[in-house]
Amino acid sequence: MIFPLKELIAYDKNMYEITAASSHRAYQLSMLYDANDDDACYWIENNSGKVVSLAARQLFSQEIEFRLNQ
């Protein structure tokens, strides 16, 4: 798994939340894999199908947002 190390080091919020959000997003990507999403297809195919890396990249680059449901 290629996790964005620089972003992870700079992240100053709750590490559990970002880990849980990455895991949840990776599940979404694997279940809802959209063959029409060129960026996702390219990323997944060039990283041996590792959706966790794509999920982490999306979270750290703020392409998607997450919130804690209480």
Describe this structure in words.
With 70 residues, the chain is an all-alpha fold. 60% of the residues lie in helices and 0% in strands. The chain has helices at residues 5-10, 15-31, 38-46, 51-60. Helix 2 crosses helix 4 (51-60). The N and C termini lie far apart (30 Å). The model has no long low-confidence stretch (mean pLDDT 76).
Short description:
This protein has 70 residues and is mainly α. The protein is built from four helices and no strands.
How would you summarize the topology of this molecule?
Layout: H1 5-10, H2 15-31, H3 38-46, H4 51-60
Helix pairs in contact: 2-4
Label this structure with key terms:
single chain; 60% helix; 70 residues
What is the element string, with H for helices and E for strands? HHHH
Oligomerization state of this entry?
single chain
**Strand portion, in percent?**
under 5%
Indicate the percent of residues in helices: 55-70%
Quote the average pLDDT. 76
Q: What gross morphology would you assign?
A: globular
Query: Would you tell me the structural class of the helices and strands?
Result: mainly alpha
Distance between the termini: 30 Å
For the CA atoms, what is the radius of gyration? 12 Å
